[in-house]
């Protein structure tokens, strides 16, 4: 039915507009996908649905492009009701900060806060270091002659 295609396009445009606003971009969903591409694997694995969401967004973008650019594509169904529902749910997840990129931002923020909260241990000298810096009584009593002899020895060695 043509109705599904039109409803799909409206939901896609709504999600695209939200992504444009959220990412301060003119590319919308394409920018969202690009951000997902640039996210390091370490953070991707924090989101259990990462791969499924990524593939679904790419597939839905392909359907949208087909509807927008191919002649006669509106004459038969390009999408399903499930596609429309998924777009609506993904839209809600972005609004609730439960989408993949929002989850990654929270993980990064919590890691940054943990690093800042980690106390730094002040450097304290070990007993051996203090022994080196504090002269012993014998070192204090070194006579002038011993200093001269040590100096001469250091020159010839």
Key structural traits:
single chain, 157 residues, 72% helix, mainly alpha
Structure notes:
By secondary structure, the chain is mostly helical. The chain has helices spanning 2-23, 29-38, 41-44, 50-69, 81-95, 100-117, 127-133, 137-140, 144-156. Helix 2 (29-38) runs antiparallel to helix 4 (50-69). The chain is rod-shaped. It starts with a helix and ends with a helix. The mean pLDDT is 86.
Briefly, what is this?
Helices cover 72% and strands 0% of the residues.
The tally of strands reads 0
Strand content: under 5%
* Distance from first to last alpha carbon: 98 Å
**Overall pLDDT level:** 86
Count of helical segments? 9
The shape, in one word, is rod-shaped
Low-confidence stretches: none
Please estimate the helix content: over 70%
What is the chain-wise order of helices and strands? HHHHHHHHH
Radius of gyration: 34 Å
* Biggest beta sheet summary: none
Kindly name the structural category: mainly alpha
Secondary structure layout plus pairing:
Elements: H1 2-23, H2 29-38, H3 41-44, H4 50-69, H5 81-95, H6 100-117, H7 127-133, H8 137-140, H9 144-156
Helix pairs in contact: 1-2, 1-4, 1-5, 2-4
